[in-house]
């Protein structure tokens, strides 16, 4: 199944809030439809959010052409991009894609609004197609690195960094898929990933569909699983990576990194270069989204698990310090032992 599909001027998004029990596509006819889908996690995963946002800009530009008005076209489009950018503040791929689209629009401003809209559609399609190629390259680099361990691997992953989080085979799960193709996956342990259960609903679903051996565990079983099940490595995705390698990912990753460090299990991050934010020096500067408190008060699909007045803290992400990361896998290669020196050097090549 496709995570997203651009067809006859409409963006169709696989509604991931309905998986794994229903396969429903949301038709997005306006940029507001896309923003809502991003906000409620109907589409999720940093790369997929970026691609969806690119198409949202196309829909916005088309709407502005039809409506006209006194506000200059690019001024109105910039305001819409700022609104879209606020939908998920931690995932930097969203900002990256919107920036790419606005740069493209400004380059063709003299050609008029309709011409700009046509060029923006071409740009969004190019971003979409590039993500597919990026995933494939990342999978190969990551599999080459982990293959050095020289045996079929027992792996652990958190949240969903698979095809459902991207336009291609996935980031962390892309690496796992390539390892499986090479006959090098013994077992994958998938954290359920509270409170929205992306690991249970999406990762386990994806791996089972590809006949990759997977065992689902609750988040609080991870430490004991690492200690007793012979886990060779942890591999996860990322939503933003600072210039020193500090990495924001789904809440629970930081704790997982502490367990891994204690038990000498290497932790790998798989993320495209567009996930790096070199404008920030370390993870303390990464904005952490806090989501609706009812996500914690309820089990998935809204069944109450706590009193409605129960106070809640619900950060969607946490930050793993670079010293807990063995390597970051990208489509351009691998950054071993990421820090304030190795990350900038990597981007100089």
Account of the 3D structure:
By secondary structure, the chain is of the alpha/beta class. 42% of the residues lie in helices and 17% in strands. The protein has eleven helices and 14 strands. It has helices spanning 31-39, 46-67, 73-85, 92-107, 113-147, 172-181, 198-209, 222-228, 253-263, 294-297, 342-348, and strands at 4-7, 10-14, 25-28, 153-157, 185-191, 214-217, 233-236, 240-242, 247-250, 267-270, 276-277, 317-320, 327-330, 333-336. The strands form three sheets. It has a seven-stranded mixed beta sheet, sandwiched between helices. A four-stranded mixed beta sheet has the order 11-8-9-12, with helices on one face. Strand 5 (185-191), helix 7 and strand 6 (214-217) form a beta-alpha-beta unit. Helix 5 (113-147) packs across helix 6 (172-181). The mean pLDDT is 95.
Produce a short descriptive summary:
By secondary structure, the protein is α/β, with parallel strands linked by helices. Helix content is 42%, strand content 17%.
Question: What's the arrangement of secondary structure elements?
Answer:
Blueprint (H helix, E strand, L loop, with lengths): L3 E4 L2 E5 L10 E4 L2 H9 L6 H22 L5 H13 L6 H16 L5 H35 L5 E5 L14 H10 L3 E7 L6 H12 L4 E4 L4 H7 L4 E4 L3 E3 L4 E4 L2 H11 L3 E4 L5 E2 L16 H4 L19 E4 L6 E4 L2 E4 L5 H7 L1
Helix pairs in contact: 1-2, 2-3, 2-4, 2-5, 3-4, 4-5, 5-6, 8-9
Q: Please state how the strands of the largest beta sheet are arranged side by side.
A: 6-5-4-7-10-13-14
Sequence stretches where pLDDT stays below 50 over 5 or more residues: none
Number of strands: 14
Largest sheet composition: 7 strands, mixed
What letter string, H or E per element, gives the SSE order? EEEHHHHHEHEHEHEEEHEEHEEEH
**Distance between the first and last residues' Cα:** 36 Å
3D shape: globular
Structural class: alpha/beta
Amount of helix: 40-55%
Number of helices: 11
How much of the polypeptide forms β-strand, as a percent range? 15-25%
- Round the mean pLDDT to the nearest integer and report it: 95
Gyration radius from CA atoms, angstroms:
20 Å
């Amino acid at each position: 199944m496709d995570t997203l599909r651009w067809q006859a001027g409409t963006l169709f998004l696989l509604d991931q809030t309905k998986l794994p029990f229903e396969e429903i596509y949301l038709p997005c006819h306006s940029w507001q439809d896309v923003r809502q889908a991003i906000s409620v996690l109907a589409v999720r995963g940093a790369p997929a959010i970026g691609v969806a946002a690119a198409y949202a800009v196309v829909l916005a530009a088309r709407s502005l052409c039809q409506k006209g008005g006194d506000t200059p076209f690019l001024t109105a489009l910039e305001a819409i991009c700022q609104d879209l950018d606020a939908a998920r503040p931690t995932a930097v791929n969203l900002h990256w894609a919107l920036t790419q689209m606005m740069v493209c629009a400004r380059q063709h401003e003299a050609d008029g609004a309709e011409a700009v809209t046509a060029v923006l559609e071409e740009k969004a399609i190019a971003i979409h197609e590039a993500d597919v190629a990026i995933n494939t390259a990342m999978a190969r680099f990551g599999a080459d690195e982990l293959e050095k361990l020289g045996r079929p691997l027992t792996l652990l992953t958190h949240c969903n960094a698979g095809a459902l989080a991207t336009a291609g085979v996935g980031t962390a799960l892309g690496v796992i898929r390539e390892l499986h193709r090479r006959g090098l996956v013994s077992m994958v342990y998938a954290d359920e990933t509270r409170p929205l259960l992306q690991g249970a609903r999406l990762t386990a679903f994806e791996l089972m569909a590809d006949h990759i051996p997977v065992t689902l565990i609750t988040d609080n079983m991870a430490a004991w699983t690492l200690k007793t099940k012979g886990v060779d490595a942890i591999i996860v995705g990322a939503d933003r990576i600072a210039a020193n390698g500090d990495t924001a990912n789904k809440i629970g990753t930081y704790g997982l990194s502490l367990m891994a460090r204690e038990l000498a299990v290497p932790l790998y991050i798989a993320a495209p270069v567009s996930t790096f934010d070199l404008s920030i020096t370390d993870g303390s500067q990464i904005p952490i989204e806090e989501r609706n408190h009812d996500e914690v008060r309820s089990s998935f699909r809204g069944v109450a698990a706590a009193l409605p007045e129960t106070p809640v803290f619900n950060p969607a992400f946490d930050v793993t310090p670079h010293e807990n990361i063995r390597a970051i896998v990208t489509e351009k290669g691998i950054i071993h032992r990421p820090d304030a020196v190795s990350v900038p050097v990597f981007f100089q090549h």
